[in-house]
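User: structure tokens for this one?
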Amino acid sequence: MSSTENFRIDPTQACLVVVDIQEKLAPTMPSDVLQKVLRNTGILISTAQEFQIPILLTEQYTKGLGPTRSEVKSLLGDMIPMEKLAFSCCGLPEFSFKLKSLGKQYVILCGMETHVCVLQTALDMLDGGYHVFLPADAVCSRKKLDWKVGLNVMGAAGVIVGSTELFFFQMLKEAGTDRFKKLSKLVK
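Assistant:
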């Protein structure tokens, strides 16, 4: 294994996990940040669909925080979110089973909140032997400090923290292909 292999996403070995982007939680986020997270989550979902990367979707305490935001749900069609009470997605046996059954080694995480559910999920995934990739512009917290601290803790633990475009272009690998022509419109 090369020294940089764990810093590159192999789309054939990846899955995308969309964590708790919910109707009642979203308005508590700074509005400009929320719009960026929704846009970048959309880019990640569309890219995953193009590469046939499996997607897992969670909701935290749906009764209290509401369903997944319509902007996200509309891209996922009839996908049924997995409801959880544990902050870590891995605290839900159904989620852990589905994740393991995919047989993937790379996980791209996006969602809410960076310092709570995303952080605890990332740490559990690292403990499970997964390589975790976190686009910093596709996660958010109510407070900027919590977002920054969450990113710092995850980076120190071994999560590869980057941006949506960084991981997007890693998966594309080259320009001039039909896939590039189709997807490059997403980041313009």
